[in-house]
């Protein structure tokens, strides 16, 4: 079994956050208009801060289909332009999967969630532009459930159409599994015992300049200055900030998946920009494919490497440039990514 890296570990919840699991909608009741008036309880999406909860409502629309509503903020630490960026869309999709699990599939609140794969393909860049009101996201999801020999739900693969203010802007996929706390602790102990701890904790490196990686806010830079390796390769070190309000919303015993995706995205943007003579600020992600095979430890150095792939032409975005990226600890790639970017202003 692959052990994935994810930000979806159960967050601590107080008595006021306890909820009754809704389970399956009886006979798939008539489809209704979803509500955007208030967010769901934070425990249902594994968040500590109420301000980090995007999902507002959900319903089951068929035997294995679900609609989930989310409101995207107009002001957020990860939002640095007039368009909704990759981290917010990915986080809304992650919260969608977690909410469906608890509210509609009766996955207990004490389970650890492990994201094995996740992808997002942007279909309409212009549709991601902010309007005069917070964005209304709708994720229409289909789940393929898988169970153990006893019939107990182990996890599911999902596919989703992502609509923003009524316009389809992306397609998402992913794979989630659920394990008990004891199983999770055993997985973590086995993984950590196999590592070499003789060198001690890794020192915190110096982040790159925001302009190098297509960012504006220094708080959101998560890699060092990239250096070239060979003709088409680039390398940097991951710089985690455990006080970051979004990437580390609650304490984790590993580097979260959204941090690793952002590190891969930043190195891909920097590599494409430097190899092509482009401004990193003009490069927008149009697709990301992420695969997590092992946990990335908080207290070990993480190297991120990228190899550029040939340009391709896309009728929607024009030239699309990409990179194959991997995050490495002690010589082993625990997660891999294919990131594609296009010029957009």
How would you describe this protein?
This protein has 345 residues and is of the alpha+beta class. The protein folds into 2 domains: 15-185, Roll (Thiol Ester Dehydrase, Chain A); 204-343, Hotdog Thioesterase (Thiol Ester Dehydrase, Chain A, Roll). 15% of the residues lie in helices and 34% in strands. It is built from 3 helices and 12 strands; from the N terminus they run ββαββββαββαββββ. It has a 12-stranded antiparallel sheet. The radius of gyration is 20 Å and the shape is globular. It starts with 54 loop residues before the first strand and ends with a strand.
Compact overview of the structure:
The protein is α+β, with helices and mostly antiparallel strands and 345 residues long. The chain contains 3 helices and 12 strands, in the order ββαββββαββαββββ.
> CATH first level of the largest domain: which class?
Alpha Beta
Oligomer classification:
single chain
The span between the termini is 42 Å
CATH topology of the largest domain: Thiol Ester Dehydrase, Chain A
Main beta-sheet annotation: 12 strands, antiparallel
Name of the CATH homologous superfamily of the largest domain: Hotdog Thioesterase
Helix content estimate: 10-25%
Q: How many domains comprise the coordinates?
A: 2
User: What amount of the residues lies in strands?
Assistant: 25-35%
Instruction: Please name the CATH architecture of the largest domain.
Output: Roll
Secondary structure: number of strands? 12
- Overall mean pLDDT: 90
Question: What value does the Rg take, in angstroms?
Answer: 20 Å
Shape: globular
**Class from helix and strand fractions:** alpha+beta
